Amino acid sequence: MRKLLPIGLTLVFLLAACAGEDPAVNGSQGSGGEDHGMGMGDEGFAFGEPGDQGEADRTIEVSAFDSLEFDPDSVEVESGETVTFAVTNEGKNVHEFVLGDESYQEDHAVEMSAGEDMRMGLNEIEIEPRETKSLTWTFTDADNVLYGCHEPGHYEGGMVGMAELGS
Predict the structure, then answer these.
(1) Is 153 left (phi over 0), alpha (psi -120 to 50) or beta?
(2) Is residue 8 part of a domain?
(3) How far is residue 159 from each of residues 53, 70, 74, 100, measured CA to CA in Å?
(4) What's the CATH code of the domain at 110?
(5) Cβ contact 27:52 at 8 Å
(6) Which of 33, 76, 103, 121 is most buried, with most CB under 10 Å away?
(7) Count of beta carbons in the 10 Å neighbourhood of residue 97
(8) Is 28 inside a domain boundary?
(9) Is residue 65 part of a domain?
(10) Mind listing the pLDDT tens digit for each residue in 20-49?
(11) pTM, 2 dp
């Protein structure tokens, strides 16, 4: 019996460790897999889909500032192009980088202002101060796509940029 106790405790701790969040579901790529009811169904997002960083056509470096600005505040992308956004938080406050059409951004802003506890979706990353994270996206020929920060007051304060779809 005394030999079974350490084995049993080991199994309990092992199961507890495995029950935590899956890093593939909530990792730095912004992959949470939640629908949020905003433009994503079984077919995916209306404005594109997550891409593979190793197969990106190019990388766009974006800086997020506490002055509620992104730099650049506008980029041009092509339909079918896979882009990795390398986003650096240059400030002292947490920022987000959320890709979405206008409807998605508005719905996300409402949910955030309501204080809902949300996990990052496939099109979202949260960046701590002085941290850089990447999000890779393949754009479709939908309308222009916005990128915004939905930390309290940021989106409403103008922290939004645009990925303009070229021809």
Answers:
(1) left
(2) no
(3) 25, 7, 12, 14
(4) 2.60.40.420
(5) no
(6) 121
(7) 25
(8) yes
(9) yes
(10) 433 333 334 433 333 333 444 434 788 899
(11) 0.73
